[in-house]
Amino acid sequence: MAKRIDVSGLNAYYGSFLAIEDISMTVEPRSVTAFIGPSGCGKSTFLRTLNRMHEVTPGGRVEGKVMLDDENLYGAGIDPVSVRREVGMVFQRPNPFPTMSVYDNVAAGLRLNGKYKKSELDDIVEKSLRGANLWNEVKDRLNKPGSGLSGGQQQRLCIARAIAVEPNVLLMDEPCSALDPISTLAIEDLIGELKERFTIVIVTHNMQQAARVSDRTAFFNLAAVGQPGKLIEIDDTERIFSNPSVQATEDYISGRFG
Ligand SMILES: Nc1ncnc2c1ncn2[C@@H]1O[C@H](COP(=O)(O)OP(=O)(O)O)[C@@H](O)[C@H]1O
Ligand SMILES: [Mg+2]
Predict the structure, then answer these.
(1) How far, in Å, CA of 113 to CA of 206, rounded?
(2) CATH superfamily of 5-97+171-254
(3) Where is the ABC transporter domain (predicted)?
(4) Is the CB of 91 under 6 A from ligand 1?
């Protein structure tokens, strides 16, 4: 099967600091891949190279190749804005646009991307909120501010906003780390549903979560602070958590460090 994402020889820098070195991996369509590893090993940095967000940071620079299907995201003439539409992102802290209504939060990306009739927007907003398992909770308050929702609802609102523009890939950077356990389970269930339509890459510091939600797990590590983070291994999640190939992975998942 064609790989949806195919990364080879990827380095990412902040100025002269090499944060991640020589990463190569593939991600299959309609799967969930979890990134785990100790803090500072470059999980977030790597995730942001997958939709050209890394270069938004001053000094942020990337070498290597990220193929999305047949297209090199770092090829000549590629528009980073259209990349970010194809590859959506959900962040650690729910970040709905605070002054906007629930409805407008979901419609925001669509309005940027083109002209829709009101009835079309209504349909997409409803579909996206249903897709994010939020519709029933907000259908009577679509015109109230998104910031009035609970943390877990806000995160599902951000997921609705991300899927409204129909990306192919969804990147999630510790999407549950600011949420209570019930909201966390709601997001985990949602990830299970979303993978039928999207390819998902999720960073998590919670190994139980990685084990619950992902098909594949990638373990990142760094030799020492100031050294670049590296991909140590990627394999089926079941295998990573039962019989990993590398001792450092075993040490990490059994809680011996990190
Ligand atoms: N904006 C930045 N400027 C400079 N260095 C950064 C920046 N963001 C992250 N780093 C550094 O890059 C390395 C990887 O960080 P990060 O990708 O956030 O790791 P993780 O998500 O695994 O905790 C760390 O050494 C971190 O200090
Ligand atoms: Mg991080």
Answers:
(1) 35
(2) P-loop containing nucleotide triphosphate hydrolases (3.40.50.300)
(3) 5-247
(4) no
